[in-house]
Amino acid sequence: MSGLYKMEVNRFEDILNSILVISQILIPTDFSPASWRAMKMGMELASVNEACLDLLHVVPTVSRYSKDKRHQHLPEKLEEVQQRMDDLSKELTNGVPIPIQNHVLPGSVTETMLSFIKGNSYDLVILGVNSHGADNEIGSHTSSIIEKCDVPVLVVPNNLRSNGAIAS
């Protein structure tokens, strides 16, 4: 990591910590590399702030392109995803004593995330950008969360030039 980049990242961390008291962080995940980077950043922030970390995965019950709006999830799929979340938490913490709570919910991704955020007391939401190009353009879920969320949202770019941690 270049010295200038590390200095900028450390400065960002100092600014963020002076603005916010962070005790509860939510990181929605779709199990992508971008969400992994967001989780690593969340681990760093949780460690520095002695905060609790919640991970959320929404199992889509209806495709946004489908005309059929009935719920179509299977309970077995929710159990499989819960196991995947548990495994992910173990890998993420790797012995670090940061409390992580996993949540798996069925529903429309954006609406379920916003409802979950509103129903809890989060100080920060961290989202990974899942762009498929070099531009890191944010998608519709991320745009909606930023626009409608009443909690600060930190967006982690897909091509972050470190291991995803705030400081290394």
Could you list some keywords that capture this structure?
disordered C terminus; 18% strand; disordered N terminus; Rossmann fold; alpha/beta; 43% helix; 5 helices; 5 strands; 168 residues; five-stranded parallel β-sheet
Structural class: alpha/beta
- Can you tell me the residue ranges where pLDDT is under 50 for at least 5 consecutive residues? 1-5, 163-168
Q: Helix share of residues? A: 40-55%
Largest sheet: 5 strands, parallel
- Please indicate the percent range of residues in DSSP E strands (runs of 2 or more): 15-25%
Fold-level CATH name = Rossmann fold
Architecture (CATH level 2) name: 3-Layer(aba) Sandwich
Query: What is the domain tally?
Result: 1
Count of individual beta strands: 5
Mean pLDDT across every amino acid position: 78
Q: CATH superfamily membership, which one?
A: HUPs
Rg from Cα: 16 Å
Overall morphology: globular
Give a quick rundown of the structure.
The protein has 168 residues and is an alpha/beta fold. It has helices at 3-19, 33-49, 75-93, 109-118, 140-148, and strands spanning 24-28, 52-60, 100-107, 124-128, 153-156. It starts with a helix and ends in a 12-residue tail after the last strand.
